[in-house]
Design goal:
It is a single chain. By secondary structure, the chain is mainly beta. The protein is built from 3 helices and 9 strands. The protein has helices at 2-5, 106-110, 166-170, and strands spanning 21-25, 45-49, 69-71, 94-96, 118-120, 138-139, 153-155, 164-165, 177-179. The strands form 2 sheets. The protein has a 7-stranded parallel beta sheet, with no helix packed on it. The longest helix has 5 residues, at 106-110. The protein is globular and about 50 Å long. It starts with a helix and ends in a 12-residue tail after the last strand.
Length: 191
């Protein structure tokens, strides 16, 4: 009986086609089912924070192509399914994945979001986001986030970073805020 009480139904908001803002914080369900946002085509903001989630269904955002803001912070997410954000490349502006257990591979799922303006990845054990092997503190190679040229805010505090990728300082012309606080970066060099 307890397992049934901890599950959310698929199509949870299907009868609410005009719903624009869905906020589900501190839920006890440990999973989001496939088809959860079925018929949520008007949804612009989705927040599922402070859950015991470890994974997400690959189709979670397939039914909500107009999403502008997603907050999946403070969960236990360890990875992101391939293609999770594929239908949101033109609409998503704000994404928070802070305070999870994500590693560098998660950045690959975020990379197709060319219109993204604000990205929060703080408090995740991301490690090195610069793919080319180099001992330099300022890596000459671009990161997994390089396609996000429209970013205005990038928060990578407490993410286990050891170096700064070239695109963060040279190839993100709209970037106004870069937070690298509380990482293992020992020295910054300008070349």
């Amino acid at each position: 009986m307890e397992a049934a009480a901890r599950a959310l139904p698929a199509g949870f908001v299907a009868a609410c086609p005009r719903l624009e803002d869905l906020e589900l914080q501190m839920m006890q369900a440990d999973a989001i089912p496939e088809g959860f946002l079925l018929n949520a085509t008007a949804l612009k903001k989705f927040k599922a924070a402070f859950w015991p989630l470890k994974e997400l269904p690959v189709d979670l955002f397939d039914y909500s192509p107009n999403l502008e803001e997603i907050d999946l912070s403070s969960n236990g997410l360890e990875s992101l399914p391939s293609g999770l954000f594929s239908r949101l490349a033109g609409s998503l502006r704000v994404l928070s994945l802070a305070r999870n257990r994500l590693h560098a591979a998660a950045a690959l799922q975020v990379a197709p979001l060319a219109g993204l303006r604000r990205l929060y990845l703080a408090d995740n054990p991301l490690g090195d986001l610069c793919p080319a092997a180099s001992a330099s503190i300022l890596a000459r190679s671009a990161s997994y986030l390089a396609p996000l040229r429209a970013l205005e805010e990038l928060v990578l505090s407490r993410a286990g970073l050891a170096r700064v990728c070239a695109d963060w300082t040279h190839h993100m012309p709209a970037l106004r805020r870069l937070d690298l606080s509380h990482n293992r970066i020992a020295e910054l060099q300008v070349q």
